[in-house]
Amino acid sequence: MAPLETYPIISLRKEDVLAPEEMGSKRKGWVQVASDSERWLFKYARLSNGQVTGEHWAEKVAAEVAELFHVPHARVELPPSTDLQAASADAFPNSPGLAPN
User: Fold this and answer.
1) CA distance 65 to 84
2) What is the CATH number of domain 14-91?
3) Which of 65, 90, 98, 100 has its CA 20 to 30 A from that of 32?
């Protein structure tokens, strides 16, 4: 049996936030990770009755399934829990106009 692949851990800090993203109902913002040239859309975790809803890991699973089927998708990573809380971060490579300049 092949060993399990691990996913990269992308550390985010409050000072990495470039600008808030006002589109949609969820709290999110554009971030620039020091070790990456891509701009990322950081989505804060949503809570329901004090519990994280799981939307962040659902996006990660959907991106990985899309990758297996060669379907175009945003790169989704799960930053570690920090003062920003658990969330997902999406990179949109080769998609001009999606991230702020």
Assistant:
1) 26
2) 3.30.200
3) 65
Please say whether the beta carbons of 100 and 20 come within 8 A: no
pLDDT per position as a tens digit, 12-67:
777 788 887 888 887 888 888 777 777 788 887 788 888 878 888 888 889 889 98
Tell me the pTM.
Answer: 0.69
78, 91 contact by CB (below 8 A): no
Give the 3-state secondary structure of the chain.
Answer: CCCCCCCCCCCCCHHHEEEECCCCCCCEEEEECCCCCCEEEEEECCEECCEECCHHHHHHHHHHHHHHCCCCCCEEECCCCCCCCCEEEEECCCCCCCCCC
Q: Where do we find the tokens 């913002």?
A: 29
